[in-house]
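User: Show me a protein chain along with its predicted structure.
Assistant: Here is one chain, sequence first, then structure tokens.
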Amino acid sequence: ISPQLHAQCSQRRWSPRMDLCHVPTTREKGWYLALMAPNVKGRNYAWLDPSRLYCHPQGLQDCVGDLLQPFQGDPIDMVAGIDAMGFILGAAAAAVLQKGFLAIRKAGHLCVQTLAQPYTDYSGREKVMEVRTDAISPGLRILLVDQWVETGGTMRAAIQLVERLGGVVAASPRPCPAGVAAICIEDSEGGRWIRERYKCAHCVPPILQPRFDRHQ
């Protein structure tokens, strides 16, 4: 990773406006992370907003490419995205892979038969996640995508839903037909639980990971 990217992210040199036409000459992994915007609204919000990088066409393309790179050659049957921001990256990944996309939703939004899983999100709130029961058949190989894994509670609930329906999310000791992908997987207890058991992809270079773990 270049000193320029490290300095730009670590010093929070965030521009108030984006230049959607600017693309770095050297597009190293994670260059688009500097497009993300910090939280300016307080503790009720996530510490960082990645949605700004989705507005940058090359940034979005390279972000999805980095998420999919570890799974090249793996047999993936379907991509599943987690409500709500995981829908963006998940649908983009499904389009690149030419696979179907399954929305894993917060409770109350699906009008068909569903399977439910309670969980605690990154803010400590108790919630319920649902998935339709007719989309996952036993042995279906799933790539699970979310925007961010902080405490791991949301992703773990999605994994449980997929596996309860007989789907396969790649476990690291076995051959990996699919897995878990997010812009960042923090080094939390839940994040480590996921990394130890499943094949994972993320976009944060190792030199920046400690700062992301500290929400800096």
